[in-house]
Specification:
Elements (H helix, E strand, L loop, with lengths): L7 H18 L11 H11 L7 H18 L2 H10 L2 H9 L10 H16 L4 H18 L3 E2 L2 E2 L6 H16 L1 H4 L6 H21 L15 H19 L7 H5 L1 H15 L6 H22 L13
Keywords: Acyltransferase, Membrane, Transferase, Transmembrane, Transmembrane helix
Protein name: Acyltransferase
InterPro entries: Acyl_transf_3_dom, Nod_factor_acetyltransferase
């Protein structure tokens, strides 16, 4: 059997994105990155999406890869909250549908939901699929802007966000054959320059508006959100084809870095007066720890089959 060649440019794009996530949490700055960082991961999910033979298989596989790591990496925070927070605050935390132990791990839960929903969407006739995706996404995008009895309509378990990001998965699925080739042609360079121009113009016209996918808060209209995110996604993937492959290992470990770095941030933030130093320290320790876990402790990395497939 021929060994499938790994796509390094996609790993590099993931690596760039996860380092920007760490920098954002270390308060380095926005620089317009929140417009595309998390949407990029959903887009890449679509690029590599393959429909499994059954929904049961999908659930078991993604429980191993996403849900169980979500629980495992929340346990330290659970212990911390249990012993440091007042009992009432601890109870309220469980009742808040957007409160979780390990903050960045919301992405794992959201990604699990995306796999389940997209499995169902792929069963629908092709001519109706795009319309349904846009309909669900608009509901997810705008639902939280409405209030009921003084409370915004936030669905539990990040379902608002899950519905909102489905178009990125769909577009990644549609553009797979154009995204995966790693040729460094003049056409690729011209496209990257055009995307960079559009990205800069977008920043100039609307400013560096941060989007918050945790709270499903975008501070812009739906078409602007989709356009800005897609331009940023395609720009980063295009640029990644011209970046040395040494950064690919960071992208390959991006899920682990996501759930690990917040612990190093909490431990180190009191020792650094400048966010750049904090970012460098947190990134280095997170990458090294993620590499060690990936290599030696599969039980923590999402690779171990707790549920047999």
């Amino acid at each position: 059997m021929n060994k499938v060649k790994r796509n390094y440019s996609i790993d590099i794009a993931r690596g760039i994105a996860i380092l920007f996530v760490v920098s954002w949490h270390c308060r380095v700055g926005n620089f317009g990155v929140t417009m595309w960082v998390m949407p990029l991961f959903f887009f890449i999910m679509g690029v590599f999406y393959h429909t499994p033979i059954s929904l049961k298989l999908q659930i078991r596989k993604k429980t191993n890869q996403l849900l169980i790591p979500f629980v495992i990496w929340s346990i330290p925070y659970f212990i911390y909250y249990l012993f440091t927070k007042p009992f009432l605050a601890f109870v309220k935390m469980w009742l808040n549908p957007y409160e979780i132990m390990n903050g960045p791990s919301w992405f794992l839960l959201c990604m699990f939901e995306c796999y389940i929903i997209y499995y169902g969407i792929k069963k629908i006739e092709v001519e109706y699929r795009g319309l349904l995706i846009v309909f669900l996404s608009i509901i997810g995008f705008y639902l939280g802007t409405y209030q009921l009895f003084g409370h915004h309509l936030k669905l539990p378990l990040f379902i608002n966000t899950t519905l909102t990001v489905i178009p990125f998965i769909y577009l990644g699925d549609l553009l797979r054959d154009r995204i995966l080739p790693e040729q460094k042609t003049g056409r690729e360079i011209k496209l990257s320059v055009l995307l960079l121009f559009l990205f800069v113009m977008s920043l100039y016209n609307i400013g560096m508006i941060p989007i918050d996918m945790y709270w499903n808060d975008y501070k812009q209209n739906y078409p602007t959100f989709l356009f800005n995110s897609l331009v940023g996604i395609l720009l980063i993937i295009g640029i990644s084809k011209f970046i040395p492959t040494s950064l690919a290992v960071v992208g390959r470990l991006s899920m682990l870095i996501l759930v690990i770095h917040i612990y190093f941030y909490e431990l180190l933030k009191m020792f650094f007066s400048h966010p750049i130093g904090l970012f460098v320290a947190v990134s280095a320790l997170s990458i090294f720890t993620a590499w060690m876990i990936d290599k030696y402790i599969p039980y923590l990395s999402g690779k171990y089959q707790y549920l047999k497939i």
